[in-house]
Amino acid sequence: MSQQTIVPDATVTLHFAIKLADGQVVDSNFEGKPATFVVGDGQLLDGFEQALLGMKAGDEAIIDILPEQGFGMSNPSNMQRLPRKQFGDMALEQGLVVSFADGSDGELPGVVAEFNEQMVTIDFNHPLAGKNLKFEVKILTVE
């Protein structure tokens, strides 16, 4: 059986880690069960999928993912100022994740960026937006 390379629609099983530029691990499954996905099914961001194309079972790599290929750039229009009274007695602190209802009854997480007695600024950007990431992979199988 010839070694199949990763192409669109291939089923890939891999171990991966996503790390910040300083080495802090954001997500990893090296300690646990490997992940299986189909290239193009939307489970992985395009930038991560593109980086895997052409790799084979047994390949290992550490790939630099720029914000444009990962979670995008931080968008200033995703910063919203809300009245402090809307948060009631909630103890606020910078970095606190707060859930809001979105227009379709889903939940939209936001991060408290700054606050004072009158206003709270919430950042609705993805926490990894604007960050350079390292994508560490070990390809187990390609079908």
From TrEMBL:
Keywords: Isomerase, Rotamase. It holds the Pfam family FKBP_C. InterPro entries: PPIase_dom_sf, PPIase_FKBP_dom. Residues 9-83 form the PPIase FKBP-type domain. GO terms for molecular function: peptidyl-prolyl cis-trans isomerase activity. Its EC number is 5.2.1.8. It is an enzyme of class 5 (isomerase). The keyword Isomerase applies. It catalyses: [protein]-peptidylproline (omega=180) = [protein]-peptidylproline (omega=0). PROSITE patterns: FKBP_PPIASE (PS50059). Belongs to the FKBP-type PPIase family. PANTHER family: FKBP-TYPE 16 KDA PEPTIDYL-PROLYL CIS-TRANS ISOMERASE, FKBP-TYPE PEPTIDYL-PROLYL CIS-TRANS ISOMERASE SLYD. This is Peptidyl-prolyl cis-trans isomerase. It comes from Amphritea opalescens. The lineage of its organism: Bacteria, Pseudomonadati, Pseudomonadota, Gammaproteobacteria, Oceanospirillales.
